[in-house]
Amino acid sequence: MWKEIRERESGNLRPNSFSNRIRSSRVQSLQLSNHKEIISPHRGSVNSLQVDLTEGRYLLSGASDASVAIYDVQRATDYEGGGLVAKHKSLVVVDKQHEHGHKYAISSAIWYPVDTGLFITGSYDHHVNVWDTNTTQVVMNFKLPGKVYRTAMSSLATSHMLIAAGTEDVQVRLCDISSGAFSHTLSGHRDGVMTVEWSTSSEWVLVTGGCDGAIRFWDIRRAGCFRVLNQSHSQLGRRPPLLERSVLNKGSTSKSTSTGQSSTTKARAPQRKMAPGNGSKQSAISKIPSLVKGSARQRLHPGMLSSQDRTTAHYGAVIGLKATEDGMYLLSAGSDSRLRLWDIESGCNTLVNFQTARLQTGKAMQLSTTQDSTLVFVPCMTSVKVFDMWSGKTVQTFRGHYDHVNCCCYSLQDQELYTGSTDRQILVWSPSKLASDELDEWSKIGKSSTLDQDNWSD
To answer: How far apart are CA 199 and CA 206, in angstroms?
Structure first.
């Protein structure tokens, strides 16, 4: 770290590069924290974790005993071990004894993206509740036709306040907080929907993964899904950066003007026209044989050919989805114990070979990535594996839980990882601390350190 500081002071290292290097070094030194501990009040498996998106300070957890809790991960409630171990007890706990609490397991607990005044819970009792954090009262309730597996809200949305809910029903429903009613019903899956994920580049695009093995893209402004991912539709490697792609495009256009229309420009022409909901429909319809009558076209699923509509992304249920921060790639996990990385623009499987990982197949699981999306944290039975996003190699393996890990959440503020398990515990994985940091903590709590004292000190 001192080398980076010297380069930063001399002007050889830009501020962004300096912060990125510090973050990456902190991530690489993650280990089970010996100075921070979260006291879990749950009496069932922890199914969902999320740190608020505004301050990065409050951790929300939901468990199978129908309880939900909130913790302050930056300010401890108590200290042990002479002040070196910070204890974080729950600030708010709501369980099934609450008059409006859930009756069955909470499968999903998420923060309202704008502030910490609201949070949303989804449960196996077929309800999605919107809670007021200050009063711990339900301000809105949505009744769904089946068990709620996962809920999600867009962190980019400025035009809507929609909660996407994936249930054991084949239809995905969007709950509107502003009106208190269902605004959309998305039909296309042939089995229950295990996971939902909003795009990180567009507030209108929703991605869903179902028990039928399909991953569908929806533009909520238009009818029908505009893309279904196909695991056999693949391409090797990552797309070149934006600057390189612009150079390649200029080169291809110059060649086409000099030598006529080339095959590469012909292949790229449909991709330039593609837009969510519109372009895929045009490209799909253009491939229909001329012998097909107009009535047959109307019977097709909106925006999709019947052959494409039945394609699958996994050989089992899709149990986890995570989009990269730049919105260009999507990581999916299936009950076939496979991880796949998808190029969102082309819809291709990038064929990144993630090393063997046994995944829990009984329920939906929560994935997490670092801020630059170079590493992904995946619950693998009783451990959490850290994979390099672009090579698929296992970087680290975290072992500390005594039962299956269900969820993990990476804090961008503190570069810490929080994991929840069936053993009812929430573990903290934090970067290794320097001796100077420990001395600062001792001074903050008003205690003198004994590290620099000896038997002859007064």
So the answer is: 6
| Claim: this prediction has a pTM higher than 0.70 | yes
Q: Residue 16 domain-assigned?
A: no
Q: Which two tokens stand for residue 55?
A: 């301050």
b/e code 286-318 from CB counts within 10 Å (16+ = b): eeeeeeeeeeeeeebbebbbeebbebbbbebbb
DSSP state of 56: S
Cβ contact 187:311 at 8 Å: no
Gyration radius of the chain's alpha carbons: 24
Q: Rounded CA gap, 317 and 215, in Å?
A: 10
What is the number of domains present in the chain? 1
Extended beta strands in 144-214, E state:
148-153, 162-167, 172-176, 181-186, 193-198, 205-210
Residue 271 lies in a domain: no
CA dist., res. 271 & res. 279, Å (int): 8
Tell me the pLDDT of the chain (458 aa) as tens digits. 566 676 666 776 677 666 666 667 777 788 899 899 999 999 999 999 999 999 999 999 999 999 999 999 999 999 987 778 899 999 999 988 888 889 999 999 999 999 999 999 999 999 999 999 999 999 999 999 999 999 999 999 999 999 999 999 999 999 999 888 999 899 999 999 999 999 999 999 999 999 999 999 999 999 889 999 998 888 766 665 554 544 445 454 444 444 444 443 333 344 433 444 444 433 333 333 333 334 333 344 444 556 667 788 999 899 999 999 888 999 999 998 899 999 999 899 999 999 877 887 778 899 999 988 889 999 998 999 999 999 999 999 999 999 999 999 999 888 899 999 999 999 999 987 654 454 454 454 454 444 444 444 44
Name the residue range of residue 193's domain: 39-243+309-427
Contact of 170 with 156, CB cutoff 8 Å: no
Domain CATH code at residue 221? 2.130.10.10
Report the DSSP beta bridge partners of residue 305: none
Identify whether 66 is part of a domain.
yes
Beta-bridged to residue 397, according to DSSP, are 385
Q: How far is residue 341 from each of residues 176, 304, 431, measured CA to CA in Å?
A: 31, 22, 27
Q: Is residue 14 situated within a structural domain? A: no
Give the DSSP letter of residue 143.
E
CA angle (66 as vertex; 65, 67 as ends), nearest 5? 90
Helix (H, G, I), strand (E, B) or coil at 321: strand
- 237-244 long-range contacts (CB < 8 A, ≥24 apart) are 237/350, 238/350, 238/390, 239/328, 239/343, 239/345
Is 238 strand, coil or helix? coil
Q: At 76, is the secondary structure helix, strand, or coil?
A: coil
Give, for 369, the enclosing helix (H) or strand (E).
strand 368-369
